[in-house]
Design brief:
With 267 residues, the protein is an alpha/beta fold. It has helices at 3-8, 37-52, 74-86, 95-105, 107-114, 130-137, 164-172, 174-183, 189-195, 207-219, 223-235, 241-266; strands at residues 13-18, 21-26, 58-63, 67-69, 119-123, 126-128, 140-144, 148-150, 187-188, 200-202. The protein has 12 helices and 10 strands.
Length: 267
């Protein structure tokens, strides 16, 4: 069996455990971990399993090989578009069905953003398109000094998906998010740090050690407090202060109750 055929039979996602830390790796290195149909189908379920696993306290997202995620698989999308134009689609679908398919797929970043445990983007290389959205869905973004960043949307006639424009508008503010996407310029790791796309840039060889040190630390915190805190932070994006204070007070008492129960269980 050739190396290419072996690669075709490898899973498109890999999950590694390190204590209470789970490392989710997008595993299409030959395509810079671009999102094809198989990977788009797999990610929501994989992330949901990690989100619901109480033995996991932190999720690290990264890519295999020399890229984090190059966005959508443009070659596959162009091929599908050509088939639609030529009327040679193997399976014809309606516009509504395609919208439903995409909406199910993009649940991956919503689950990542809203799950009751922190997520860290370990950005090891190229980060573009939907890859930028996955980075934005994480709580921390640590980049290799070899990483490159580019929205890669308007240049391809695309407005974006996976919530990227929503995440980055909230992270950067309206003006800078518009500059990010409408300019569509490529940024080095240091330029990305100055712009606000990442929290830290480290030497490529030290990336995993830096990320795992942070991941182990946040994974060690009481999970009830982390979960309710993340719920508060998400709610703060849309709720009025009065409604938010109601939620905050409830979650504070629930977290304290959970601590009491955890201590009782140890006795």
């Amino acid at each position: 069996m050739t190396e290419q055929n072996t690669r075709m039979h490898e899973p498109v996602t890999l999950v590694e455990r390190d204590g209470r830390v789970a490392i989710l790796t997008l595993n299409r290195p030959d395509s810079l971990n671009a999102l094809n149909t198989e990977l788009m189908r797999a990610l929501p379920g994989e992330i949901r399993k990690l989100a619901e696993d109480d033995s996991i306290g932190c999720v690290v997202v990264t890519g295999a090989g020399r890229a984090f995620c190059a966005g959508g698989d443009v070659r596959a999308m162009n091929k599908a578009s050509e088939a639609r134009v030529e009327g040679t689609e193997k399976r014809r679908t309606t516009h509504e069905a395609r919208v439903r398919w995409l909406r199910r797929s993009v649940e991956a970043t919503r689950i990542l953003f809203e799950m009751p445990k922190p997520a860290i983007a370990m950005i090891n290389g190229a980060c573009a398109g939907a890859g930028l959205a996955f980075a934005g869905a994480c709580d921390f973004r640590i980049a290799s000094d070899q990483a490159k960043f580019v929205p890669s949307l308007v240049v391809n006639g695309m407005p974006g998906d996976y919530g990227g424009t929503w995440f980055w508008t909230h992270i950067l503010g309206t003006a800078k998010a518009r500059q990010l996407y409408l300019d569509d310029r490529r940024r080095s790791a240091e330029e990305a740090l100055a712009f606000g796309l990442v929290d830290r840039v480290v030497e490529h060889e030290a990336l995993r050690d830096e990320v795992m040190a942070l991941a182990r630390r946040v994974a060690s915190f009481p999970p009830s407090g982390v979960g309710y805190l993340r719920e508060n932070l998400t709610a703060a994006l849309s709720e009025t202060l009065e409604t938010y204070l109601d939620r905050e007070s409830l979650n504070m008492m629930l977290a304290r109750n959970a601590l009491v129960e955890a201590r009782k269980a140890k006795e």
